[in-house]
Amino acid sequence: MKTMTTMFLCLITMLLIASAYSNSVRLHMTHRDTLSPQHTPYHRIEDIMGMDLKRHSAISQKIKTSKSGGRMPLGSGFDWNAAQYFSEITVGTPAKKFRVVVDTGSELTWVNCRFQGKGRESREAFRADESSTFKTVGCMTKTCKFDLRRLFSLAICPTPQSPCSYDYRYTDGSRSQGVFGMDTFTVGLTNGSVTTIPDTLIGCSSDSKGDSLSVSDGILGLAYSDNSFTTKATSIFGNKFSYCLVDHTAHKNISNYLVFGTNPASATKSPAKRTTQLDLNILPPFYTVNVVGISIGDTMLNIPPQVWDVRQRGGTLLDSGSSLTFMVEPAYRAVVTGLERHLVGVKRVKVEGLPMEYCYDTSKYDDRKLPQLAFHFKGGARFEPYRKSYLISTADPRIRCLGFVSTGAKGPNVIGNIMQHEFLWEFDLAASTMTFSPSTCR
Predict the structure, then answer these.
(1) Given 33, 103, 172, 428, which residue is catalytic?
(2) How far is residue 399 from each of residues 350, 389, 392, 402, measured CA to CA in Å?
(3) CA separation (Å) from 73 to 100, 343, 426?
(4) Residues of the signal sequence (predicted)?
(5) Which residue in 221, 248, 276, 442 has the fewest CB atoms around it within 10 Å?
(6) Between the CA of residue 236 and those of 1, 66, 262, 432, what are the distances in Å?
(7) Which of 47, 247, 279, 319 is the catalytic position?
């Protein structure tokens, strides 16, 4: 996520999978949230929370591919001790795969790279010099000087032939430095074949720093931006993309897909399917939704309307790069107080290193006592996440916490990936709508 980005904690395999359906492309997507040998259970949660808090602090050429769309595997990062979802991108000629964080708040897609003798020697590095389709963006070009300025292109141009450089910084202190280039991506099609997407912007990062990048080869930027991978892919496969996030504690053998074009799974006439408007131009490059209120059970919470108003430093974003759900203080206090009333008698605990305020020993708690929480969108649509999405598991099976964090007086509110899991989310960029429905993501 550009100003709000951070926390890039790994992705799993984006295997190019075929399907008998048409009109979509998809990538496998997994969540990255497991315990590594170097981390204690609570260190993992502490790291996730730290990255989440920092993340919030700042918050074409068409090719003919018949009528099929594209897809990439998408899964949880649990087995990499990461709080993000990952996919695999295939770049260059000859093509090489890289595990990347799927981030709807980031504009730039980049990978660890070695170019003209600079960069990493590791196996995961993309050797741009060896790709016959890689070409740099020149530092004297309009693309560098104007189009890519928002992506931190640097005003360094020793010669007219020098590449356009960038220094992409994230709010957790992570950074990625390199040069902008164009290369060919290879994606699987839902009709069982594969296709290439030529002349796609990619960051060739010779240097990247930050704990949040340690298990990732790079970032897949899916924000709403002229320079994002989303814009390129949807210009080819249709103006839609979608994803279904498996449970954030799922292992790497459980995954779903990131789909560009119409998702076959969205064709069902589920009565639970809901559609709401997207405000794509109000807080670019983020996906802004019109929340107008939150209810717990049958009670609408008393939350000031300015909390949801972007013009008053409010508003709400849907973000795959944040794990927890962030709320401006009046909304946060109303939600946690409302839920706490239904946890009376359950032992509240303080876990060292865990910034969430409300944690409980729920070993003897009946989840059916916790009422349904619902986000109410303008137009009448309601999003009713699973109880396990807001009373979330920790490394200790006895302890669960309310998965909300206060942002203080500053917005916007952010619906994170744990709240989103086990729902199918489809973004229609042409109609400026978002459709969602419960799904097993299997």
Answers:
(1) 103
(2) 10, 14, 9, 10
(3) 11, 38, 16
(4) 1-22
(5) 442
(6) 23, 10, 12, 18
(7) 319
Q: How far is it, in rounded angstroms, from Cα 291 to Cα 404?
A: 16
| 357 and 231 co-located in one domain | no
Catalytic, 217? Answer no
Give the span between the Cα atoms of 241 and 100, in whole angstroms. Answer: 18
Count other Cβ atoms within 10 Å, centred on residue 442: 10
Domain count, the chain: 2
Based on the fold, state whether residues 152 and 228 are members of the same structural domain: yes
Q: Which tens digit of pLDDT belongs to each residue from 265-293?
A: 877 767 789 999 999 999 999 999 999 99
For residues 217 and 290, membership in a common domain is answered with: no
Residue 430 domain-assigned? yes
One domain for residues 187 and 86: yes
pLDDT at 303: 97
Residues 54 and 94 in one domain: yes
94, 109, 126, 134, 315 from 130: Cα distances, Å:
8, 19, 9, 8, 45
pLDDT in tens, 214-235: 788 999 999 999 999 999 999 9
Mean pLDDT of the chain: 84
Q: Which of 224, 242, 263 is the last residue of a domain?
A: 263
